[in-house]
Amino acid sequence: MPARCSEHTADARHFDRMRRARNQMHYEARPVAAADADKAARTARALLKAAALPLDHQ
């Protein structure tokens, strides 16, 4: 598997872990820390950028 593809897969797994943690915090009514929100935003931007790349580029 190309390095970029595995990097995107790792990003997707990381985003899913953060999403589940955020959902759990919401369920427990705990606030999301600013650092967690910033990291989630950076990860989402990386995933959007990867999704916009042509398939032969990945």
Structure overview:
The protein is mainly alpha-helical. The chain has one domain. Helices cover 78% and strands 0% of the residues. The chain has helices at 3-28, 34-52. The N and C termini lie close together (10 Å).
What is the tally of beta strands?
Answer: 0
What sort of overall outline do the alpha carbons produce when their principal axes are compared? Answer: elongated
SSE string: HH
- Which ranges are low-confidence, i.e. pLDDT below 50, for 5 or more consecutive residues? none
- Residue fraction in strands: under 5%
Give the number of domains.
Answer: 1
Structural class: mainly alpha
The tally of helices reads 2
Helix content: over 70%
Mean pLDDT: 79
Radius of gyration: 14 Å
Report the end-to-end length measured between terminal Cα atoms.
10 Å
Largest sheet properties: none
Outline the secondary-structure elements.
Blueprint: H1 3-28, H2 34-52
Helix pairs in contact: 1-2
Brief sketch in words of this structure:
By secondary structure, the protein is an all-alpha fold.
Task: Provide keyphrases for this structure.
58 residues, mainly alpha, 2 helices
